[in-house]
Amino acid sequence: MKPTPPPYPTKGVSLRELRGGHVEIIAWVHDIARDRGGICLTLRDASGVRSFKVPDGTALGEVTRESLIRIKGFLSGDELRINGCEALVRGPKELPVNLSKPPEDPKSFARYSYLLIRSPKYADVLRIQQWIVHYTREFLYNEGFVELLAPMISPCSDPGLRGARKLLTKLYGSDYELMSSVIMFKQAAAASFERVFFVARNVREEPPENIRTGRHLCEFTQIDVEWALKGMFDVMRLCERMIIYVMSKLMESHGDIVHRYNPDIKVPEAPFEVISYDEAVEKLKALGISTPKGKELTQEGERKLSELYDEPIWIVEYPKTSRGFYYMEEPRRAGYNRDFNLILPRGYGEVVDGGEREYRYEKIVERIKEMGEDPSRYGWFLELAKMGIPPSAGFGLGVERFTKYVLGLKYIWEAVPFPKVPGITMSP
After folding, report:
1. Residues 130-154: pLDDT tens digits?
2. Comparison of pLDDT for 299 and 157, the residue scoring more
3. Do 179 and 153 form a contact (C-beta atoms < 8 A)?
4. Which residues contact 320 (CB under 8 A, 6 or more apart)?
């Protein structure tokens, strides 16, 4: 069958590639304003924004912001003489949000995220995020790790959700959960590959009040890494090298964009400082912030602690009662885990959670019961543990939180396309 052209014009060069002479441009109208002796027409496409001086009296018709237009004309420097202008998609007379300055109000941001993805700032953020994921993958591939596709639903998922609620669904009449963590699947996969990772999407219904932190999402992404027959300090060193590698590569390839939003950012140096959970509690106590006995640091405490540092720090050995059943107890300190969090400096807080995994069937059942959970809910995993899984250690790095830190963003919902913000839906 002979191919036929589409019933609309197709695009040639991008705005960035335009030089001079006779041109045909297909782009969005980002802004249009009167200028001295003419019109300042700012256009936008995937390559960025570019402004042109259009002589006064040029016929642009009913062109509005966010119209997709095709222009034929002559370009000399930044002056564009238009011979013809056609609206392929006509934008509304008024937009609900300003794409040049995205709203700080989280409800407006979430509600109109489908439109805000056109914002030049948002586009920059998401491009940098793409490279964060790319360089992370590159590092882990070079270290011999195998990437697997992450499951989206399971009969059971991570119970250690720090106040969040898991979302339920049905599969052929059976109860399933939307994935809140792939940790049990990492342990299963490590028995085969030894070094494994997922780029995993997770869903949790966060308490609505967590919107105040500016660092919680109901749908987020983790780089989930697991390494069989290695200990917690092995994976901590791996994580340090991964973060330094990713940030160094970003500075080499896209440092101009990174420094545009975060001029003070610098690549950290290894090794990162290590303090114990108990030391962290004492530091916060000196600041007048109390930590509930046997619980993780409060959101305020985590933020205040991270404000004390200019480099990332590790907090190790959290109380057993503060974490999920899958962490191994520290044999030298009863009641504490062999686990860790990585805290980013200057108030950005936790970005990595991990530790050594409990792999012994009897101990796993014991820990599940200590948490007040029913072991039968974890049927497939306990069946696997009874057959045998290897000792392992691993971690999960929050992609959106890391993006927020690298670019110096104020709110985490700026660091994800189509964000799901605590307590807010996209419904009108």
Report:
1. 999 999 999 999 999 999 999 999 9
2. 299
3. yes
4. 327, 329, 335, 336, 337, 367, 370
3-state secondary structure of 336: strand
- What CATH code is carried by the domain that includes residue 68? 2.40.50.140
Same-domain check for residues 395 and 258:
yes
Can you say how many angstroms the Cα of residue 204 is from the centroid of all Cα atoms in its chain?
A: 14
Q: Which domain holds residue 161?
A: 106-415
Q: Could you say which of 37, 56, 89 is where a domain stops?
A: 89
Question: From CA 250, how far away is CA 258, in angstroms rounded?
Answer: 8
Element (H, E) at 286: helix 277-286
Would residue 324 count as lying in a domain? yes
Query: 3-class DSSP state for residue 42?
Result: strand
Residue 209 shares a structural domain with residue 330: yes
Q: Do residue 60 and residue 184 come from a single domain?
A: no
Residues 128 and 259 in one domain: yes
What interhelical angle do 379-387 and 361-370 show, nearest 10? Answer: 150
On whether both 38 and 166 belong to a single domain, the answer is no
How large a percentage of the chain has pLDDT more than 90? Answer: 86
Beta-carbon contacts of 12 under 8 Å, excluding residues fewer than 6 positions away, are: 24, 26
**Together in a domain, 213 and 352:** yes
Residue 100, domain member (yes or no): no
Helix, strand, coil distribution of the chain in percent, nearest 5:
30, 30, 40
Give the helix/strand (H/E) hosting 342: strand 339-344
- With beta carbons less than 8 A apart as the criterion, state whether 370 and 326 touch: no
Cα 392 to Cα 230: distance, rounded to the nearest angstrom: 6
Alpha helices in 112-231 (DSSP H): 113-116, 120-142, 183-193
How far is it, in rounded angstroms, from Cα 199 to Cα 224?
6
**Strand (E) or helix (H) holding 81:** strand 79-89
Contact 358, 337 (CB under 8 A): no
Same domain for 177 and 59:
no
Our count of domains for the chain comes to: 2
Q: What is the pLDDT of residue 35?
A: 77
* Angle at CA of residue 370, ends 367 and 372, nearest 5°: 120
Q: What is the pLDDT of residue 9?
A: 87
Q: What would the mean pLDDT of 227-253 be, rounded to a whole number? A: 98
Residue 56 lies in a domain: yes
pLDDT of residue 5: 87
Render pLDDT for 92-129 as a digit per residue (tens, 0 to 9). 999 999 998 989 999 999 999 999 999 999 999 999 99
Is there a single domain that holds both residue 154 and residue 45? no
For residue 341, what pLDDT band results from cuts at 50, 70 and 90?
very high
